[in-house]
Amino acid sequence: MPQISGSSEKPRRWIKRYRTEVSASSASVLSTITAFPLDSVKTRLQTYPYNGFLDCVRKTYREEGMRGFFRGVTAPLASVTLVRTVSFSIYQRSKYIYSDWMGKNLGFCPLEHVNKNGAYPNLGTMACFGAAGATAGSGITFIACPFELTKLSAQVSVLMATQKNADPKRQEIAMSYHNKGTINTLRNIVKHRGMSGMYTGLNLHLLRDTLGTGIYFATYESSKQLLTTFSGKDAHKNPIAVLAAGALCGIVSWALIYPIDSVKSIYQRNALMHSKGETVPIPKIHFFRKDMYRGLGVSMGRSAAVNAVFFSAFEFFKKRINALEDVDD
């Protein structure tokens, strides 16, 4: 076997050391581009009264063309990649910390249980993964909020600018976000709402991500464990289990926290049309009320697709990176 130069070995060692982060970031780029049009339709359905999914798609395409479905894609490409990378890093570390704590104090180690052949998920494993997910979700909120606000502004900028019977002052502010791009949109948010304006809706965002990410990881790990136990294969060698668990965790998490996300989107949309210092009332969160679930079907479909692609790509990239060890040897 030919010898590998030191300059070639160094990046390989770095990639293997940060295999989780490298795999998460690569998979994020792929999954974000794949599912972004559905995310755009979801946001429009949440914030404006369309007559369903097809009506939103038809009107968006007629008035804005294909570009309308990809407005604001730059922000999530950067933010989702960063957020997922940080989220997975926090999650990986947190689940080991919580599992060790439970082993020492409760006499039950969730990670040891999960790695046993034929084991099924239980309250202990779900609590461990849920707590680690909630920790990751709360941690990434402060990174994600400005990016997601910018994305939302880009997605509905045309609708805000053409809104009928709007206050002239509000209309002027709304027009400043129209077709401005990610950086200029962020500048205008700071201009109208100050530096703190980048964190408009932070409390709702924190609540959504803490609960949602906890449910997300608990569902993924538990469903993957169930499917791999039924199939009798190792989790990382069973692509069908990874694909199905990825799709399921996206569906379940969105179904349970969707009204919180709807209120966040509506509040942020309203706040973008106000200047700094003006009071913007926060809508109440109503579970099981029909208008709080506008776009849920689209969101669940998008989430199933994006997470199925993400986790499949994540496990694939991670497997390929692990295989690099054979070359170094």
| Span of the ends, CA to CA | 10 Å
Q: Work out the helicity level.
A: over 70%
**Number of distinct helices:** 11
Rg (C-alpha, Å): 22 Å
Strand content: under 5%
SSE topology string: HHHHHHHHHHH
- Level-2 CATH architecture: Alpha/alpha barrel
Supply the CATH superfamily name: Mitochondrial carrier domain
**Major sheet: size, sense and barrel closure?**
none
Q: Regions with pLDDT < 50 over 5+ consecutive residues?
A: 1-6
CATH topology (fold) name: Mitochondrial carrier fold
Mean of residue pLDDT? 83
Query: Structural class given helices, strands, pairing?
Result: mainly alpha
CATH classification, class level? Mainly Alpha
Family: Belongs to the mitochondrial carrier (TC 2.A.29) family.
Keywords: Membrane, Mitochondrion, Mitochondrion inner membrane, Repeat, Transmembrane, Transmembrane helix, Transport
GO molecular function: transmembrane transporter activity
Pfam families: Mito_carr (PF00153)
